[in-house]
């Protein structure tokens, strides 16, 4: 019988998001697929260094062990061919990561396969793959390069989310952009009791909240880190309440930089839809940008993300 993954958070992750494959990626871009494949085969036994999402993935897999439950499933999703993927699998063994499922699509777009693996969240460094996932209705984010120094907490998983256009829809933000701050604040006051519609990461938060509730121990800590401030905070709090979701911490920054809060929180990962927040944050904690719209919709607020190069 196939495993039931309904209550499991399934994370699809590219090999370049889990491990540092930047040098290898440059070989691919500059010298082509054959040179890249030769290099990977010649270096099959050389263990890869951790990449941006490594601390998060390692912490999630430890959580499974701690709670003796299969709460999070991690699947390697890569456009590599199976031959060149062997080095990645060897590195997974070396770090003792209990990742059993993998997809090496041999250059085929991954979007259609994400559904086949029941992926809830897809993390990659490649914008095209991330956009493809979003187009397939899957929460997805593009990772930045990791911070130079990052020491994750060993006992807790700490995840920080932006609010508008990440956990919540971008509807209110559109009012801010089109009509200004006063109109936005007035709108949020008037509609304070009307829950905000779910954004691209709303479901991920709900699943994490369920996982959190399984243990009395604080194993997962969630922070909302938003540019909203009073009085626009109320609608956010009432929305989370109506979803039956609690966050452990909420920072309403009203235009202050998010960096110091993220540093203090020491997030394993921070998700924000805007490069102007996620970019600077990525120098402090592992960070990712969440594209809001499918490619058939018009981008109006999307600065280019961290890296748009192809990923093998
Ligand atoms: Mg936002």
- Record the strand order, biggest sheet: 3-2-1-4-5-10-9-6-7-8
Helix content: 25-40%
* SSE succession: EHHHHEHEHEHEEHHHEHEHEHE
Overall SS class: alpha/beta
Integer tally of domains:
2
Q: What is the CATH first-level class name of the largest domain?
A: Alpha Beta
Number of strands: 10
Distance between the first and last residues' Cα: 33 Å
Describe the global form.
globular
Strand content: 15-25%
Overall mean confidence score, pLDDT: 90
Report the major sheet: 10 strands, mixed
**CATH architectural name of the largest domain:** 3-Layer(aba) Sandwich
CATH topology tier name of the largest domain: Rossmann fold
Notes on the protein architecture:
The chain is globular, with a radius of gyration of 19 Å. It folds into two domains: 9-143, 3-Layer(aba) Sandwich (Rossmann fold); 157-289, 3-Layer(aba) Sandwich (Rossmann fold), CATH 3.40.50. Residues 300-304 and 308-312 have low confidence and may be disordered. Strand 9 (269-272), helix 13 (275-281) and strand 10 form a beta-alpha-beta unit. By secondary structure, it is an alpha/beta fold. A ten-stranded mixed sheet has the order 3-2-1-4-5-10-9-6-7-8, with helices on both faces. Helix 2 packs antiparallel against helix 3 (33-42) and helix 8 runs antiparallel to helix 9. The protein is 38% helix and 15% strand. The protein has 13 helices and ten strands. The protein has helices at residues 15-18, 22-31, 33-42, 54-67, 86-94, 111-116, 127-135, 171-179, 181-190, 202-212, 233-243, 259-265, 275-281, and strands at residues 9-13, 72-78, 101-104, 121-124, 139-143, 157-161, 220-226, 249-252, 269-272, 287-289. The site of magnesium ion has 7 residues, from loops.
């Amino acid at each position: 019988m196939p495993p039931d993954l309904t209550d499991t958070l399934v994370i699809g992750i590219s090999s370049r998001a889990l491990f540092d494959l930047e040098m290898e990626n440059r070989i691919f871009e500059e010298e082509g697929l054959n040179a890249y494949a030769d290099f990977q085969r010649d270096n099959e036994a050389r263990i890869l260094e951790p990449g941006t999402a490594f601390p998060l993935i390692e912490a999630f897999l430890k959580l499974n062990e701690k709670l003796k439950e299969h709460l999070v499933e991690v699947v390697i999703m890569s456009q590599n061919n199976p031959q060149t993927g062997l080095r990645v699998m060897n590195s997974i063994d070396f770090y003792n990561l209990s990742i059993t499922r993998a997809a090496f699509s041999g250059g085929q777009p991954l979007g259609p396969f994400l559904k086949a693996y029941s992926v809830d969240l897809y993390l990659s460094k490649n914008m095209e793959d991330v956009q493809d996932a979003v187009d397939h209705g899957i929460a997805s984010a593009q990772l930045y390069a990791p911070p130079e120094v990052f020491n994750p907490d060993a006992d807790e998983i700490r995840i920080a989310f932006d609010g508008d256009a990440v956990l919540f829809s971008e509807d209110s933000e559109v009012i801010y952009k089109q009509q200004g701050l006063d109109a936005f604040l007035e709108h949020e006051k008037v509609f304070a009791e009307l829950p905000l519609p779910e954004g691209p990461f709303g479901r991920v938060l709900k699943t994490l909240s369920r996982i959190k509730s399984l243990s009395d121990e604080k194993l997962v800590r969630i922070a909302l880190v938003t540019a909203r401030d009073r009085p626009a905070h109320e609608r956010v709090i009432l929305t989370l309440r109506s979803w039956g979701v609690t966050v452990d911490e909420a920072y309403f920054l009203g235009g202050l930089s998010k960096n110091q809060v993220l540093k203090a929180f020491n997030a394993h990962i921070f998700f924000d839809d805007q490069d102007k927040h996620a970019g600077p944050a990525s120098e402090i904690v592992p960070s990712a940008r969440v594209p809001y719209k499918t490619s058939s919709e018009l981008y109006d607020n999307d600065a280019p993300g961290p890296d748009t190069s192809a990923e093998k």
